[in-house]
Write a structure and sequence with these properties.
This is Bet v I/Major latex protein domain-containing protein. It is built from one helix and four strands; from the N terminus they run ββββα. By secondary structure, it is mainly β.
Amino acid sequence: MSYGKSEIFKVKVELGEENMIFTLHGIDGDVYDDYKVCRPICKLVPKSKGCVAKLTIEYERVNGDMPISNKSMDCHAFASS
């Protein structure tokens, strides 16, 4: 991932309509330069006015000894806001 540069993340979307969850199964893209697995999961929780979205990102780094980069954390924080 690079700042100021568009990147590609190709996904297959899985919808769980009954439990209000959608999962993005990564297929290809720039994210796989740093990660073996990147799977965002969003669960919608109904509230009295609208819903709250709970985001979980399952991931596995290509090199487990490598620290998580700031740009990766910035991307995850942006996706969850």
